[in-house]
Amino acid sequence: MSTEESPGGSPLCSVVVVTWNRRKELEPLLDSVFAQSLAARLEVIVVDNASSDDTIAFIRQKYGPRVRLLAFEANRGASVGRNAGILAARAPAICFLDSDAEILSPDAIGKCLAHLDANPGTDAVAAPIWFDREKTRPFLLGGYVTPDGHYHGISCRSRDDAPMLLSTCFAVWRRATLLEVNGFDPWYFWGIEDMDLGLRTYFRRRRQHADAQPFAIVRGIDVLHEMADTGRHHDWKSFEQTFLRYERQRLYMVLAYGGVGHFLRVLLRGPFRLRRMEEAWERRLTPRQRLQATVLFPLLRLAALPKNFFDVRRNHLRGTPAPREVTDQ
Question: What is the reported pTM?
Answer without folding.
Answer: 0.84
